[in-house]
Structure formats: structure tokens, C-alpha cells
Amino acid sequence: MAGRKKSQQLREAIVRGAAEVFSKHEFHEVLTDDIAAHVGVGKGTLYRYFRSKEELYLAAIGDGLRELHASVTAVLAQPSPLVPTIERLAHTLIDYFWDKRDFFVLMHRLEPKLKAKERAEWRQRRDEIVDMLRRRIDQAVQRGEIPRVSSRVATEALLGMIRGACVYRQGSDRPQEVARTISRLFLSGLLGGESRSQSPAPRQVVTARR
Asked: Are 88 and 75 in contact (CB under 8 A)?
């Protein structure tokens, strides 16, 4: 039947509508009925385009991830010292993921099920961000801003801190305060960790016998 032919325009409308619904509720609170009603289509139509609510969720934030990638790239491309760069990066990432903590869990679970093109696109974006941040850390080492450190481990540590803060946030947490705390903790480790570990051992005090 002609009516069953998929339409790219309708798919985009579903994705936009789903993004609006997901932005107002936690993932587990959203029903496909809610999305269908918001878009103005039947639930069966949703499942013709997306196999599950999880798949639709990932599609709904896809455009946002592209915008986030552009924002992060702009931050890392600026020729500023490492400290303000890390602070801006932490704020940028946390502001985006603060209300999307389900993303990390779903991405981990669904990445193997994504189409090869979608999976490659996601990994490419992440790899580009990781590589850019690693280069900034290596440059900071070369300029003497921070002690020598593994830029790969440092980069994954920062991203892991941000991911954990978003996933396990509390109702009283505020994104700006969390971003400030994470950047301070990360930078204090870079700036002081090695110098403390290489400091000479405390001198042993010998008391003269009387």
C-alpha cells in the first residue's frame, strides 16, 4: 500500500517531537503513546520508523550531539591556556548532559545494535574530541603549564568524572557548581599530583641519646 511508504519528512517530525517530550521528562517516565500523541501519529507509525523507545531516544538527541560536538570543538580550538579551556569544556559538557543522564546507560547498551553508519559516526565524534583534548594536554606539558602526564588517561578521567556526575546527580546539585568542582578537582590533580608524588621523603628525625 502507498500509505506504508516511509517518509523522511515524517521521520524528522517524529524525532523533533520525541526530543521535545524527552526534554521535559525522565526517560522511564515517557511512554510511546505520549510521543505519538505529541507528534499526532499512531503508535504503530512510531514503530515503523523506530524499533524501540530507546532507539527513538538516541535519534532524538542526535541533532543535539552534533551541536555539542561543534561547541566542544570550538572550545578546544581556542589557543588559550589549559586551565580556562578545561573549565569551559566541563561547563559545556555538563550543561548539555545534565538532563540526559539516561543517554550514557542507553548508549552503552544500544551501541552494538546501532547501524554501522550511526555507530561509526558516534565513535568518530567522540574520538575527535578525545584527540583534541589530548593534544591540548600534551601542549600544556610542553609549555610547562603542568607536569608530564598521560594525556590519554587524563582525558578519559575527565570525561569519566563528567559522566558520573551527570548520571548520579542529586536533586540539590546545580550544573554550574558541579562543573566548577570537577574542573577544580581535575586541574588540581594535573597541577599538583606529580609534584607531590615526586617530593622527597620526609627527613627522619633522630633524637640524640642522653
From this structure: yes
Give the CATH number for residue 141: 1.10.357.10
* Dihedral-angle region of residue 80 (phi above 0 means left; psi in -120 to 50 means alpha; beta otherwise): beta
Q: Which pTM does this prediction carry?
A: 0.72
> How many Å from the N-terminal Cα to the C-terminal Cα in the chain?
105
- Single-letter residue type at 128: E
Q: Are residues 171 and 71 in the same domain?
A: yes
Segment 168-187, tens digit of pLDDT: 999 899 999 999 999 999 99
Name residues whose C-beta falls within 8 Å of residue 188's C-beta, 6 or more positions apart in sequence: none
What is the extent of the structural domain holding 37? 8-59
Count of domains forming the chain: 2
Distances (CA, A) of 188 to 78, 98, 106, 146, 191: 22, 23, 32, 10, 5
| DSSP per-residue letters across 35-62 | HHHHHTS-HHHHHHH-SSHHHHHHHHTH
C-alpha cell at 51: 524499533
